[in-house]
Design brief:
Blueprint: E1 5-13, H1 16-30, E2 36-38, E3 45-55, H2 56-72, E4 76-88, E5 91-101, H3 103-118, E6 132-138, H4 144-156, E7 164-167, E8 169-176, E9 183-191
Antiparallel strand pairs: 1-3, 1-8, 2-6, 4-5, 4-7, 5-6, 8-9
Helix pairs in contact: 1-4, 2-3
C-alpha cells in the first residue's frame, strides 16, 4: 500500500470487560474445532463503516463528517444479548454477537455516516447495515455441524448478565494487515453529544 494511503474503518470500540465477555463466548464456540478465523479478543469492535484505502486528505474530510454527526448524536447504551451467524445459523460464514439495546442508535449513526461519506465520493455499501459484533469468519465446512450445535447451545443458554455499556464516542481506526492478522490503531475519536 502506498505510504500516503491508510486502510481505515469507523467503529464503536468496546471496553475490556465487554471484550472479555465476548472472548468467553468464543471459547464456548471453539470447542466445536470448526475452521473459523476467530477475531482476536483485543480487536473485537462494532464496525459502523468500512472505508478501505484512503489518502490522508480524504481521511481529514472523513474526520469532519464524524464530528458533524457526533455533535447531533447523543451517547447511548449498548447491550449484548444474542448470538447468531450470517447468512443463517445452519450455514454459518460469519459468527456474530447481537444487540438488544443500542441497535436503533447504532443503525442511525451508520446510516448518517453512509450518506455523508458518500458525498465525499466513497461509494455506499450494497448491503444494508446490520448492528452486530463479528466474532469469527468460517473458512471451510470442517466441523460445521459441531459449530452449529454450539451456536444452538449458546442461543438457548445465553449468559444472563447481558453486559451493557455507554457508547460515548465513535472511533476512526487504521488497519494494518500482517501475517499474524490485522493490527488496529485508533487514529481519531469523535465524542458523541452528552444527553
Amino acid at each position: 500500500m502506498p505510504a500516503d494511503k491508510l486502510r481505515t474503518f469507523i467503529a464503536i470500540s468496546l471496553p475490556a470487560e465487554i471484550k472479555d465477555f465476548l472472548g468467553r463466548l468464543q471459547e464456548i464456540l471453539k470447542v466445536s474445532d470448526a475452521d473459523v478465523n476467530w477475531v482476536k479478543k483485543e480487536n473485537i469492535h462494532l464496525t459502523l463503516k468500512f472505508l478501505g484505502e484512503r489518502d490522508k486528505k480524504k481521511t481529514e474530510e472523513i474526520i469532519k463528517v464524524m464530528d458533524g454527526i457526533s455533535q447531533k448524536s447523543a451517547g447511548f447504551h449498548l447491550e449484548i444479548a444474542s448470538i447468531g451467524a450470517f447468512p443463517k445459523k445452519e450455514t454459518p460464514r460469519v459468527v456474530w454477537a447481537g444487540l438488544s439495546k443500542g441497535d436503533k442508535e447504532a443503525k442511525e449513526i451508520a446510516r448518517e455516516l453512509e450518506n455523508e461519506i458518500a458525498k465525499l465520493g466513497i461509494p455506499k455499501e450494497t448491503r444494508e447495515f446490520s448492528s452486530h459484533i463479528t466474532l469469527g469468519r468460517v473458512r471451510s465446512a470442517k466441523n460445521r455441524m459441531q459449530l452449529v450445535e454450539r451456536l444452538n447451545y449458546l442461543e438457548k443458554n445465553f449468559p444472563a448478565e447481558n453486559p451493557r455499556f455507554k457508547v460515548e464516542k465513535i472511533t476512526l481506526f487504521k488497519s494494518t494487515l500482517t501475517p499474524n492478522g490485522p493490527i488496529y490503531e485508533a487514529l481519531y475519536e469523535s465524542i458523541l453529544k452528552t444527553n
